[in-house]
Amino acid sequence: MGYVRLRQLVIAAASLEVAETLANVLGLGEAFLDPGVAEFGLVNRVYAIGDQFLEVVVPTALTAPAGRFLARGGDGGYMAIFQTDDLAAVRARADALKIRRVWNIDLPDISASHLHPADVGAAIVSIDEARPAASWRWGGPDWEKHAARGKLTGAVIHTADPEGMAARWGEALGITLKGGVIQLADATLEFRQGTEERIVKFRVSVPDVGAAAVRAARRGLDVVNDEVRIGGVGIVLVG
Protein backbone atom coordinates (compact mmCIF):
# COMPACT_ATOMS: atom_id res chain seq x y z
CA MET A 1 0.00 0.00 0.00
CA GLY A 2 1.12 3.57 -0.69
CA TYR A 3 0.66 6.53 1.59
CA VAL A 4 -2.07 7.02 4.16
CA ARG A 5 -2.85 10.46 5.50
CA LEU A 6 -5.42 12.03 7.81
CA ARG A 7 -7.77 14.16 5.73
CA GLN A 8 -10.82 14.86 7.90
CA LEU A 9 -12.05 14.62 11.51
CA VAL A 10 -15.72 14.69 12.47
CA ILE A 11 -17.64 15.68 15.60
CA ALA A 12 -21.22 14.53 16.14
CA ALA A 13 -23.20 17.08 18.14
CA ALA A 14 -26.74 17.81 19.20
CA SER A 15 -26.62 21.36 17.84
CA LEU A 16 -24.93 23.27 15.03
CA GLU A 17 -23.87 25.78 17.68
CA VAL A 18 -20.87 23.48 18.14
CA ALA A 19 -19.86 24.19 14.53
CA GLU A 20 -20.13 27.94 15.11
CA THR A 21 -17.97 27.70 18.24
CA LEU A 22 -15.37 25.55 16.50
CA ALA A 23 -15.15 27.94 13.57
CA ASN A 24 -14.86 31.00 15.80
CA VAL A 25 -12.19 29.61 18.11
CA LEU A 26 -10.03 28.22 15.29
CA GLY A 27 -10.58 31.13 12.93
CA LEU A 28 -12.07 28.95 10.21
CA GLY A 29 -13.55 30.19 6.95
CA GLU A 30 -16.93 29.70 5.32
CA ALA A 31 -18.49 26.29 5.87
CA PHE A 32 -19.72 23.89 3.21
CA LEU A 33 -23.17 22.41 3.78
CA ASP A 34 -23.20 19.00 2.14
CA PRO A 35 -26.70 17.94 1.04
CA GLY A 36 -25.41 14.38 0.59
CA VAL A 37 -25.29 13.73 4.33
CA ALA A 38 -29.10 13.69 4.40
CA GLU A 39 -28.68 10.06 3.31
CA PHE A 40 -27.36 9.39 6.83
CA GLY A 41 -30.02 11.48 8.61
CA LEU A 42 -27.69 14.43 9.15
CA VAL A 43 -27.06 18.08 8.53
CA ASN A 44 -23.47 19.29 8.65
CA ARG A 45 -20.87 22.00 8.40
CA VAL A 46 -17.47 21.29 6.82
CA TYR A 47 -14.51 23.64 7.28
CA ALA A 48 -11.26 23.52 5.32
CA ILE A 49 -8.05 23.94 7.32
CA GLY A 50 -5.08 23.81 4.99
CA ASP A 51 -6.00 20.94 2.70
CA GLN A 52 -7.68 19.00 5.52
CA PHE A 53 -11.13 19.32 7.02
CA LEU A 54 -13.08 19.58 10.26
CA GLU A 55 -16.74 18.61 10.15
CA VAL A 56 -19.62 18.83 12.59
CA VAL A 57 -22.65 16.61 11.96
CA VAL A 58 -26.00 16.91 13.68
CA PRO A 59 -28.60 14.14 13.39
CA THR A 60 -32.06 15.08 12.17
CA ALA A 61 -33.54 12.00 13.85
CA LEU A 62 -32.50 10.15 17.00
CA THR A 63 -32.79 6.87 15.07
CA ALA A 64 -29.92 7.92 12.77
CA PRO A 65 -26.54 6.32 13.60
CA ALA A 66 -25.21 9.67 14.85
CA GLY A 67 -28.34 10.01 16.99
CA ARG A 68 -27.63 6.67 18.62
CA PHE A 69 -24.02 7.78 19.14
CA LEU A 70 -25.20 10.89 20.97
CA ALA A 71 -27.63 8.87 23.05
CA ARG A 72 -24.77 6.67 24.26
CA GLY A 73 -22.43 9.43 25.37
CA GLY A 74 -23.31 12.89 24.12
CA ASP A 75 -21.32 15.08 21.73
CA GLY A 76 -17.95 13.71 20.72
CA GLY A 77 -15.48 12.51 18.12
CA TYR A 78 -17.53 10.49 15.66
CA MET A 79 -15.48 9.73 12.56
CA ALA A 80 -11.99 9.84 11.09
CA ILE A 81 -11.46 9.98 7.34
CA PHE A 82 -8.18 8.87 5.84
CA GLN A 83 -6.85 9.21 2.32
CA THR A 84 -5.11 6.44 0.41
CA ASP A 85 -3.83 6.01 -3.11
CA ASP A 86 -4.97 2.36 -3.27
CA LEU A 87 -8.51 1.87 -2.01
CA ALA A 88 -8.82 -1.45 -3.83
CA ALA A 89 -6.12 -2.87 -1.56
CA VAL A 90 -7.85 -1.41 1.52
CA ARG A 91 -11.15 -3.01 0.58
CA ALA A 92 -9.53 -6.37 -0.10
CA ARG A 93 -7.70 -6.27 3.22
CA ALA A 94 -10.83 -5.27 5.16
CA ASP A 95 -12.76 -8.15 3.60
CA ALA A 96 -9.98 -10.60 4.46
CA LEU A 97 -9.94 -9.34 8.06
CA LYS A 98 -13.76 -9.61 8.23
CA ILE A 99 -14.05 -5.87 8.84
CA ARG A 100 -17.45 -4.93 7.50
CA ARG A 101 -17.71 -2.16 4.95
CA VAL A 102 -21.01 -0.49 5.81
CA TRP A 103 -20.99 2.09 3.01
CA ASN A 104 -19.17 2.22 -0.29
CA ILE A 105 -19.20 4.74 -3.09
CA ASP A 106 -17.32 5.05 -6.38
CA LEU A 107 -17.56 8.37 -8.20
CA PRO A 108 -15.36 9.74 -10.97
CA ASP A 109 -13.41 11.97 -8.53
CA ILE A 110 -13.50 9.91 -5.32
CA SER A 111 -14.13 6.44 -3.94
CA ALA A 112 -14.74 5.67 -0.27
CA SER A 113 -15.55 2.91 2.18
CA HIS A 114 -16.81 3.29 5.74
CA LEU A 115 -15.67 0.58 8.13
CA HIS A 116 -18.04 -0.62 10.82
CA PRO A 117 -17.12 0.92 14.20
CA ALA A 118 -17.90 -2.37 15.93
CA ASP A 119 -15.18 -4.03 13.86
CA VAL A 120 -12.44 -1.41 14.33
CA GLY A 121 -13.53 0.29 17.55
CA ALA A 122 -14.21 3.82 18.84
CA ALA A 123 -15.38 5.52 15.63
CA ILE A 124 -16.43 5.17 12.03
CA VAL A 125 -13.26 4.89 9.97
CA SER A 126 -13.55 5.99 6.36
CA ILE A 127 -10.80 5.39 3.84
CA ASP A 128 -11.05 7.39 0.64
CA GLU A 129 -9.18 7.68 -2.64
CA ALA A 130 -9.47 11.11 -4.27
CA ARG A 131 -8.77 11.71 -7.97
CA PRO A 132 -6.70 13.85 -8.30
CA ALA A 133 -5.14 13.32 -4.90
CA ALA A 134 -5.19 17.03 -4.00
CA SER A 135 -8.96 17.25 -4.51
CA TRP A 136 -11.64 16.53 -1.89
CA ARG A 137 -15.29 16.32 -2.92
CA TRP A 138 -16.51 16.26 0.68
CA GLY A 139 -15.11 19.76 1.27
CA GLY A 140 -17.33 21.35 -1.37
CA PRO A 141 -16.71 22.64 -4.88
CA ASP A 142 -14.59 25.66 -3.88
CA TRP A 143 -13.09 24.70 -0.52
CA GLU A 144 -9.67 26.09 -1.47
CA LYS A 145 -11.12 29.63 -1.44
CA HIS A 146 -12.31 29.25 2.15
CA ALA A 147 -9.44 27.27 3.67
CA ALA A 148 -8.00 28.65 6.91
CA ARG A 149 -4.32 28.40 7.72
CA GLY A 150 -3.39 25.39 9.84
CA LYS A 151 -3.54 21.62 9.75
CA LEU A 152 -4.72 18.53 11.60
CA THR A 153 -1.74 16.83 13.23
CA GLY A 154 -3.39 13.93 15.01
CA ALA A 155 -6.00 12.49 17.32
CA VAL A 156 -6.23 10.67 20.64
CA ILE A 157 -8.51 7.67 20.99
CA HIS A 158 -9.60 6.21 24.33
CA THR A 159 -10.29 2.51 24.77
CA ALA A 160 -10.02 -0.23 27.38
CA ASP A 161 -7.46 -1.98 25.16
CA PRO A 162 -5.16 0.60 23.55
CA GLU A 163 -2.71 -1.84 21.98
CA GLY A 164 -5.48 -4.08 20.67
CA MET A 165 -7.43 -1.24 19.08
CA ALA A 166 -4.28 0.35 17.67
CA ALA A 167 -3.43 -2.99 16.07
CA ARG A 168 -6.91 -3.23 14.54
CA TRP A 169 -6.79 0.29 13.11
CA GLY A 170 -3.28 -0.40 11.88
CA GLU A 171 -4.45 -3.55 10.10
CA ALA A 172 -7.31 -1.65 8.49
CA LEU A 173 -5.06 1.20 7.36
CA GLY A 174 -2.18 -1.04 6.35
CA ILE A 175 0.18 0.71 8.78
CA THR A 176 2.81 -0.92 10.99
CA LEU A 177 2.43 0.59 14.44
CA LYS A 178 4.76 1.25 17.33
CA GLY A 179 3.12 0.40 20.64
CA GLY A 180 -0.18 2.23 20.87
CA VAL A 181 0.73 4.83 18.24
CA ILE A 182 0.04 4.91 14.50
CA GLN A 183 2.28 7.28 12.56
CA LEU A 184 0.71 8.44 9.31
CA ALA A 185 2.23 10.50 6.54
CA ASP A 186 1.10 13.73 8.20
CA ALA A 187 -0.41 12.91 11.60
CA THR A 188 -0.18 10.72 14.69
CA LEU A 189 -2.94 8.59 16.19
CA GLU A 190 -2.50 7.82 19.88
CA PHE A 191 -4.51 5.09 21.60
CA ARG A 192 -4.76 5.53 25.36
CA GLN A 193 -6.42 3.81 28.29
CA GLY A 194 -9.87 5.20 28.96
CA THR A 195 -13.33 4.24 30.10
CA GLU A 196 -15.04 5.76 27.05
CA GLU A 197 -14.35 4.27 23.64
CA ARG A 198 -14.17 7.37 21.47
CA ILE A 199 -11.95 9.83 19.71
CA VAL A 200 -11.42 12.24 22.61
CA LYS A 201 -8.89 14.77 21.26
CA PHE A 202 -8.07 16.45 17.96
CA ARG A 203 -4.62 18.02 17.58
CA VAL A 204 -4.94 21.14 15.46
CA SER A 205 -2.07 23.37 14.37
CA VAL A 206 -3.10 27.03 14.15
CA PRO A 207 -1.12 30.15 13.20
CA ASP A 208 -1.59 31.83 16.59
CA VAL A 209 -2.36 29.65 19.63
CA GLY A 210 -2.69 32.69 21.88
CA ALA A 211 -5.29 34.34 19.65
CA ALA A 212 -7.30 31.11 19.51
CA ALA A 213 -7.16 30.86 23.29
CA VAL A 214 -8.44 34.43 23.61
CA ARG A 215 -11.34 33.70 21.27
CA ALA A 216 -12.18 30.60 23.31
CA ALA A 217 -12.14 32.60 26.54
CA ARG A 218 -14.47 35.18 25.02
CA ARG A 219 -16.96 32.40 24.42
CA GLY A 220 -16.72 31.32 28.04
CA LEU A 221 -14.57 28.26 27.36
CA ASP A 222 -11.72 27.19 29.60
CA VAL A 223 -8.30 26.75 28.00
CA VAL A 224 -5.99 24.46 29.97
CA ASN A 225 -2.51 23.67 28.65
CA ASP A 226 -3.54 24.94 25.20
CA GLU A 227 -6.56 22.63 25.11
CA VAL A 228 -10.17 23.74 24.79
CA ARG A 229 -13.18 21.44 24.89
CA ILE A 230 -15.66 21.87 22.04
CA GLY A 231 -18.41 19.41 21.16
CA GLY A 232 -17.17 16.82 23.62
CA VAL A 233 -13.69 16.84 22.08
CA GLY A 234 -10.50 18.29 23.52
CA ILE A 235 -9.10 20.55 20.80
CA VAL A 236 -5.35 20.64 21.44
CA LEU A 237 -3.97 23.85 19.98
CA VAL A 238 -0.53 23.38 18.45
CA GLY A 239 1.71 26.20 17.29
Topology:
Blueprint (H helix, E strand, L loop, with lengths): L3 E9 L4 H10 L15 E8 L2 E8 L5 H9 L2 E9 L2 H10 L4 E6 L3 E6 L1 H4 L3 E7 L12 H4 L4 E9 L2 H12 L7 E3 L4 E6 L4 E8 L3 H10 L4 E2 L2 E4 L2 E6 L1
Helix pairs in contact: 1-7
The secondary-structure element order is EHEEHEHEEHEHEHEEEHEEE
What is the CA-CA span between the terminal residues? 31 Å
**DSSP helical segment count:** 7
Helix content: 10-25%
Describe the structure.
Helix content is 25%, strand content 38%. It is built from seven helices and 14 strands. It has a seven-stranded mixed β-sheet. A hairpin with a 2-residue loop joins β12 and β13. It starts with a strand and ends with a strand. The model has no long low-confidence stretch (mean pLDDT 95).
Compact summary:
This protein has 239 residues and is of the alpha/beta class. It is built from seven helices and 14 strands.
Features:
single chain; 239 residues; alpha/beta; 7 helices; globular
